[in-house]
């Protein structure tokens, strides 16, 4: 069994070797940071089928919100020497912050001109001012797909995936961009929607956000390894694909709302336990991390086709967007997989970043 200290030392040694032997230049971190800035909204909105390909110019507006948030989550976690538990908790913080205090979708019953109140009425909780189903959707879409998946995909191209990509100036610049974009969106939403949440709703969201941030930095930096073998990357990826796909079945099959709500907790809890155990097992590597992210990414590929039929564009244009972004996602995943496999052949001592 590998002790936590040994695991950390081996990982650090392997990544340092990868840096030196691969000619890791100062340009690569900046390029990866810029790529994450763009990839986060592309996955979160266009691959998901929320936006048609004809609105690709909106990337200029959404990148500071999505990409800026993803970069802040990753850089804060990596600069503090922390791994995926911290990234996921900070990603959940981002999800609640964006859809709560910033654009207030959690509480606005007529958000974007849609009857959100009626759509989520079955699980509405008056004390929270929102519904359980809405909270589940927000946490799933942003924590996993907008933040975690893009980070994992792009870290695959870095021989030292735990290393920061931005310096202090760059981090401050991204924070300023994200804050400016968030302020602009909040003001625009208040004016256009003519809606303001209650003090109680803001307070409860603030408490949840602070609790998530505290939890993100209270989780141990390293976790004790267990005496078990990790599954193959393919098994891990297929398992995640099946689990994440199950969360979107209500769009295809008439499933009672409360069954989906309970199922979300069951599926989510099971995957947390499984992946936590796998990531502490022998043989777990960055290829496994990529496989997990890839399983989730491929879920969005098929979900995008299902969502595309509801877009306010001709069917042909919606399908074109699905094909373009779906193909791009698959090619990116294939390229990342090739890079990680080649690196693990060249540097077998690299254990991976979890």
Structure description:
It is a single chain. The chain is mostly helical. It has one domain (4-346). The protein is 69% helix and 1% strand. The protein contains 12 helices and 2 strands, in the order αααααββααααααα. The chain has helices at 4-22, 27-47, 59-79, 84-102, 116-119, 132-155, 168-193, 199-218, 233-246, 257-278, 286-308, 315-346, and strands at residues 124-125, 130-131. A two-stranded antiparallel sheet has the order 1-2. A hairpin with a 4-residue loop joins strand 1 and strand 2 (130-131). Helix 2 (27-47) packs across helix 3 and helix 9 (233-246) runs parallel beside helix 11.
List keywords for this structure.
single chain, 354 residues, mainly alpha, two-stranded antiparallel sheet, 69% helix, 1% strand, disordered N terminus
Quick structural overview:
By secondary structure, this protein is mainly α. The chain contains 12 helices and 2 strands; from the N terminus they run αααααββααααααα.
The beta-strand count equals 2
Q: What does the main sheet amount to?
A: 2 strands, antiparallel
H and E order:
HHHHHEEHHHHHHH
Taking the alpha carbons of the first and last residues, their distance comes to: 17 Å
The average pLDDT value, as a whole number, equals 90
Structural class: mainly alpha
Which spans have pLDDT < 50 for at least 5 consecutive residues?
A: 1-24
In order across it, which strands form the biggest sheet?
1-2
Overall geometric form:
globular
Percent helix: 55-70%
Q: Compute the number of helices.
A: 12
